[in-house]
Every structure is written in C-alpha cells, then in structure tokens.
Write a structure and sequence with these properties.
- By secondary structure, the chain is α/β, with parallel strands linked by helices.
- The protein has three domains: about 55 residues, Nucleic acid-binding proteins (OB fold (Dihydrolipoamide Acetyltransferase, E2P)); about 150 residues, Rossmann fold, CATH 3.40.50.300; about 55 residues, Ribonucleotide Reductase Protein R1, domain 1 (Orthogonal Bundle).
- It is about 30% helix and about 25% strand.
- The protein is built from eight helices and 13 strands.
- The protein has a six-stranded mixed sheet with strand order 10-9-8-11-13-12, sandwiched between helices. A five-stranded mixed barrel has the order 1-2-3-5-4. The protein has a two-stranded antiparallel sheet with strand order 6-7.
- Helix 3 links the parallel strand 9 and strand 10.
- The longest helix is centred in the middle third of the chain and has 16 residues.
- The chain is globular.
- About 35% of the residues are buried.
- Bound molecules: guanosine-5'-diphosphate (GDP), magnesium ion and zinc ion (ZN).
- The site of magnesium ion (MG) has 2 residues, from helix 5.
C-alpha cells in the first residue's frame, strides 16, 4: 500500500496510509544501496509485515531537516522583536525558489507596531502579492491552513520570529515549546533531535527551519536573477546582463520608475555580492 513517512526515530518509520499510522522497518536492501528513507518520502509498504519495500522518486530533498518532497516553505518574518529583515526575506525567497519549493510569506508580531508602521507593512505585503507571492499575517490561521492543505511544508525564518507559535496557532493538536525572545535569540542550537512533521489539517509541517540564510552557496550570480520573480517581466537588451552595471538596463529602469521595489533591487545586488 502507498503511504508517506511522517516520523523517523532511529530505524522505526511511522508511515501514514490513508488516515492510519503504521510503525514500519525499512528493507535491509536500502541500507546496502546507501538509500536513506526520509520523512516526506512516498513509500510502498508491505502491511502484512510492516516493512517499507519501495521509496518512490523524490521531487526534492533537504538536508536540515532531512526531508523529502517539500511543496512549500513558510517564511516567518517578524516585523519587530526581531526587527523586519528584508534582506533575509529576499534571500530566503531566492534560496527556497532555487530549490523548487514555493515560498509563502507570513508576517508576525504586527501587534507590536504603531498604526503608521502597520501601514508600511501592508504596502510591502501588497508589493509581494503583486509579483505573485501568497502573503499572510500570522493572525490569518484559516487562510494559511487553506494554502497548505495537503502539502509538505517547512518553516524558515530567524530564531524568535514566531515559528513554533504559529504552529500552535494553526492547530490545538500539539503544544510546541516556544521561547521567550531573549532566550530564543541567545540559543544557537535546536533542541529538536529528530525531524517530525506535524499533521495540521492534512498538511505536514516541519517545525525546524528548513533553510537558513547561509545556504546561498549553490546559486550562481548568473542564476540569482531568475529567483527574483518580478525581473521576468522585463527583457534586457544586453544578453547576459546581471542588471548591476549597464545604465540602459531594463531592470534598473524599472527600479527608477518604481515598478520594481527599490529594496528588492538593492537586496538583489547585496545577495549577488555575497555570492561572488
Ligand atoms: N507580540 C507577539 N509575540 C509573538 C507573536 N508570535 C510569537 N511571539 C512571541 O515571540 C517569541 C518567540 O516565538 P517562537 O514561536 O518561540 O519563535 P521561533 O523561534 O521562531 O519558534 C515568543 O515569546 C512568542 O510568544 C506575535 O504575533 N506577537
Ligand atoms: Mg521554535
Ligand atoms: Zn539588465
């Protein structure tokens, strides 16, 4: 029968088949071939013997957390405590997009802002929506649940941004430990020892950041522009243009005309600097 691995503890695999959970072992042959079954793997199970007999092809695979077939990354971006970090946001969007995962943006902690600052965030939200991203506030549980239904989802975003809090808000099935902001920022390591996917209304969500901003290394500076979705609307007359030098560059013109958000372009240049 077909199922999906939702939890791994040492060599015991919990496989969800329809709505039932099976504790399974993996076939010895995987080990011999150097194949490691991952959380998120679609598998075929011999349910008479509770053995995983086959792992179906993966659409992608992450290292930390070790997880396969990720559909979405929820980028959790706090607007205060810690302050909104737009370069981190744009960098995460690029890294996630590059890994063939659709990013969803969630702004948290708007309750800590003045009305004026809230307006600025609303404008920002509109921009990201206008270029094709789904953007949420962490108060919009119903909308978020709808967006991730049936998907495998990882979280991204800095410590203290409100990732665990969000999962607790999305479901009352779990009570995940959240940290006071001071402690969260002081902590270098996760206490999580194994990858578990929380089953939230038919979505599987990993409460371990799937991406950090440090993972730029695989993107080349030539490829970076393709992870900036709005750049695709413009065609430069310069072949191989990196949109950083030529005065007559279509992207630069779009920034001047305020059709591309200035911070997006500035962050593009900063991220490219980091790649070099
Ligand atoms: N005021 C406010 N505090 C929040 C919000 N979301 C999370 N927090 C607090 O921020 C701190 C860090 O949250 P946590 O979920 O542990 O962050 P994580 O490190 O990303 O998992 C905790 O004290 C939360 O109670 C929010 O929307 N508003
Ligand atoms: Mg947490
Ligand atoms: Zn250009």
């Amino acid at each position: 029968m077909n199922g999906q691995i939702i939890r791994i503890i040492s060599n015991l695999y919990t496989v969800k088949i329809d709505d039932m959970l099976f504790g399974c072992r993996a076939r010895g042959v995987f080990r011999n071939k150097g194949i490691t079954p991952l959380v998120g793997d679609n598998v075929i199970v011999d349910t008479d013997n509770n053995i995983i007999v086959k792992i179906l092809p993966r659409k992608n695979e992450l290292k930390r957390p070790a997880i396969a077939n990720v559909d979405n990354a929820l980028i959790i971006a706090s607007v205060k405590e810690p302050d909104l970090d737009l370069i981190l946001l744009d960098k995460l969007i690029s890294i996630i997009t590059y890994n063939n995962i659709e990013p969803l943006i969630v702004f948290t902690k708007l309750d800590l802002l003045t009305d004026e600052k809230k307006e600025e965030i609303a404008t920002l939200k509109e921009y990201y929506e206008s270029i094709g991203y789904q953007v949420f506030f962490n108060t919009e549980s119903a909308r978020i649940i709808k967006a991730i239904k049936g998907k495998i989802v990882v979280l991204a975003g800095q410590s203290g941004a409100g990732k665990s809090t969000l999962i607790n808000k999305l479901t009352d099935k779990y009570d995940i430990e959240t940290k006071e902001i001071s402690k969260a920022l002081g902590r270098g390591k996760h206490t999580t020892r194994h990858t578990e996917l929380y089953d939230i209304d038919d979505a599987l969500v990993a409460d371990t950041p799937g991406f950090s901003s440090l993972e730029l290394n695989t993107i080349s500076k030539e490829e970076l522009q393709y992870t900036f979705r709005e750049f695709k609307d413009y065609e430069c007359k310069y072949r191989d243009c990196l949109h950083n030098k030529e005065d007559d560059c279509e992207i630069k013109k779009a920034v001047e005309n305020k059709r591309i958000l200035k911070s997006r372009y500035d962050n593009y240049l900063k991220i490219m600097e980091e790649i070099k």
